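User: Hi! I'm a student and our assignment asks us to look at how structure tokens line up with a sequence. Could you show me two examples?

Assistant: Happy to help. In each example below, the sequence comes first and the structure tokens follow. Example one:
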Amino acid sequence: MTNQVAHPMVKFQRKLSSLVSSKAIKPSDPLWKLALLYGDDWAFWKKELLDFGFTMQDPVSEVLLVEAWDEE
């Protein structure tokens, strides 16, 4: 039996969804605003987002639309 580990971006995406649901952030907020929430962890998440082709001006909603986080 093998357990499949979720990609870190899946967890990040779930957290963003939760933040939107709780109205802590808006789907239209730019990704750079997340730096205010993630503090010391932001450097890691920013690099991940950039590696997947996002810019810091993209809205949070763009991350929420991703269906699969496949790395090539």
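Example two works the same way, sequence first and then tokens:
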Amino acid sequence: MRLDKFLKNSRLIKRRTIAKEACDQGRIYVNEKVAKASTEVQVGNKIKIAFGAKSTTVEITSLAEHVTKESSKEMYKVIE
């Protein structure tokens, strides 16, 4: 699954266009490397999202095309 689509489906970022812009600005890391929006992610990858002084690191636990708001939280676990 593409990184921007995962960020939107998991509700870590509300819109796919915002996820793409964050990737273009170098604010999203996959396995400690700056990632493009088109980067393919898999279960077990670690994603770091840096917005301003805040940063969040999560690990992907599942991938799903269509998710509800409640089940979106099961797609990842927060590490930091």
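Here is something you could point out in your write-up. The domain at 3-78 is CATH 3.10.290.10 (Structural Genomics Hypothetical 15.5 Kd Protein In mrcA-pckA Intergenic Region; Chain A).
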